[in-house]
Give the backbone structure.
Amino acid sequence: MDKKYTIKDIAKLAGVSKGTVDRVLHKRGKVSPLALQKVNEVLSVINYEPNLIARNLKNNKVYHICILLPDPKLDPYWLPCVKGIKDAIQEFKAYNLLIETFYFNPEKTKSFININETIIEKAPDAVLLAPLFHKETLEAIKKYDSLNIIVNTFNNQVESTSIKNFVGQDLFRSGRVAAKLLNTILNKGHIAIIHIDETYKNAIHMQEKERGFRNYFSEKEDPDYKITTLKLKSPNVEVNLKNFINENPDLSGVFITTSRAYQIAKTINEVKDKKIRIIGYDLIDENVSNLNLGIIDFLIHQNQKRQAYLGITYLVDHFLFHKETPEVTLLPIDIINSENADFYLE
């Protein structure tokens, strides 16, 4: 129910005094068995959890939380985040919260900067953001911190003492997982680490994945592997990839550090003379289709829906229930193939 019930409302519904309701909610003082039964029946019907309500009924402040993430219409990777945000809003709708979502263009740093300025003008209590652009994120965090606005992040981790909580994966370990997968199905050959459409120097998530990937193979010290980094930009992704494949006939595997493995899979599938193994990220529709066709071998699931949901939940727990927020929440690195993909799809 959307209605926020007061002690007066509960007392009227139960046919008892406000003092009786207060004693039941706070578990103090004497209450007759009959009065206790009446109040608990009302609390049950209106789906109250007495221990939580008692705190919320005392607090009339409306906490304002702003969420900032890339526009899912421009990058479908972020669509599950919207569902996670909606789930959190539904769960906490009975409380004094205003949760707003803002989108920026994932290909334009100026869009990210402008949306942050818009949020600052609203003077929220907290911001939950996806730090796609590293340099601009650090600048935004400084501004929020100077205004005593809490900042939490999800999906990509940045180093800042002003961030209260991060939810996501260990991207270095994620890169190592991808490397081990390719090592298992290749045994030897030329591997390309492929970054698509982001400025590598300003994209920590790409750097960390590549660092972990290379770290795995550096520990093996195996001369049978050659590793190359390939940076591709639209609209020339397919053309430049085909040229790279033609120039490197020994290419046997690729690791794509973003959710756009399907773009690489499409071009590779047109190369009929040999099998090139593919490891990518995320369960967007095009990736899953290529996974089921056997073109993509494995996908690493980052569970972005859970990331957004937990990011909001930690802020709500902090404001309403005064719970301590963990500095880092790392989610499992799920390995998906054609046999188990259905279990992860909604």
